[in-house]
Structures are given as structure tokens and as C-alpha cells.
Amino acid sequence: MNKSDLIDAMAAGADLSKAAAGRALDAAIEAITKAVATGDSVTLVGFGSFKAVKRAARTGKNPKTGATIQIPASTSPKFSAGAAFKAAVAPKKK
Fold this sequence. Notes:
Pfam families: Bac_DNA_binding (PF00216). This protein has 94 residues and is an alpha+beta fold.
């Protein structure tokens, strides 16, 4: 499913026009991005949470040459799935 398919599904599920669903999706993505970029976490109960995680500097290896390189510290976004989302995705046991 791509963004266009998601907008179509949102429009049908919430009885919205596709344009309104697109604006709503863009606004939600923008709000989540801004919150995580400022260090806040965003929790959607049952779905999951978004947060920024810090990675320490470390030593790595260039796979092509085998040379040792320094990998600088960085901050990356992380998504953790909620229990309801995990249960919906997990295969059903017989």
C-alpha cells in the first residue's frame, strides 16, 4: 500500500473526500515528524509509538576495503509497534 492507497482507504473509512483525507494524512505526518524532531515521543495507543533514539559513536569496518572507520554519533527515528498492532499482524495459531 502506498500513500495514495492509504488516502483512498482513509477517505472511504471516514466518509471524507480524497482531498480532505490527503490533507489530514499530511498534517498527521507533519505533526509526528515535528514532535519526534524536537525530542518528544508520539504514542498512538494500540498502534505504536514514535521516538528519537541516540546512537553512540563507534568503530566500524569498510566492507569493501576492510579498513577501520569511525562512525559518528547520530540520532534516528524509531517506531515500536503496540500490542494490538502486533496481534493483528501476527499469524493466527490453529
